[in-house]
From TrEMBL:
Native organism: Litorisediminicola beolgyonensis
EC number from the UniProt entry: 1.1.1.-
Domain of life: Bacteria
Name of the protein described by the UniProt record: 2-hydroxyacid dehydrogenase
Domain D-isomer specific 2-hydroxyacid dehydrogenase catalytic, residue spans: 6-321
Amino acid sequence: MAKKTILITRKWPEAVEKRLSETYDATLNETDTPMTTEEIGAALNEYDAVCPTVSDKLPASIFSGNHRAQILGNFGVGFNHIDIEAAKAAGLTVTNTPHVLTDCTADTAITLMLMLARRAGEGERELRSGNWTGWRPTHMMGTRLRDKTLGIVGMGRIGIATAKRAQAAFGMKVVYYNLVDVPDAALEGIEATRLDTIEAVLEAADVVSLHVPGGGDNTHLMNAERLALIGPRGMLINTARGDVIDQEALIAALQSGKIAGAGLDVFEGEPKVPQALIEMENVVLLPHLGSATTETREDMGKMVADNLDAFFAGQDVPNPVT
């Protein structure tokens, strides 16, 4: 029996590519060159499965029905780069890789908080440029996180993991907003207060960390009015999706001093990053590193493989996008 054909749209960890190549007739992207939307659309008619990532765009226009492809094995937990309804209407099963990114993404949120609070990026740039003149009592003073209030918008697995780290390491108070009730068992070990609105969280917090899905109603969730509520001493952290923040409004808020700073791992229109953000010293910028550890990326790839294996064996997929 001929092996099923699959397309991997980007370069994946070697261990994952090896596993997939043993089981399937796998086309790999050795050069890691991003594919165009048109190329991915064409691939739907050439392969039994297409495995995209967050860097790919799969709009409704490429799902015309009667595709050879039967499944999209998405490498990532987020799927706002795929028009899910159009894909399903065209008869495709869509899967993702939840849960395995939790710890690494929470670690990245804490990294951004520390870098921003202690001006670490700014300090490293000064030293590397040769402009550091030595220790002095008032040089590059930041702020400590201990006893500050962390506001979590989106208290899912990553939000909870971020809150646990912040409270255990720094003794931060935690307030949060979540659309649905969070089970008490999930909050075990955290002293956290649920507030009724996003606005209430923004007003109460010294540091706001975003952990909500992108797209839909969450597009530009953080608009000019909400950004202003964070206050001139407040900081904003985003390890979720770039489109959750109105980038132009954020730039204006930072430039006018309506908020003190921002730590961003994701951007609207990646990989483009506005020059205004790059030039600001009160902004920490990372190139979408949230899940970028060898262990996590391999786990993500293995989860895609598990989904494909189950699907082609006629079994329920472990991680369907619903």
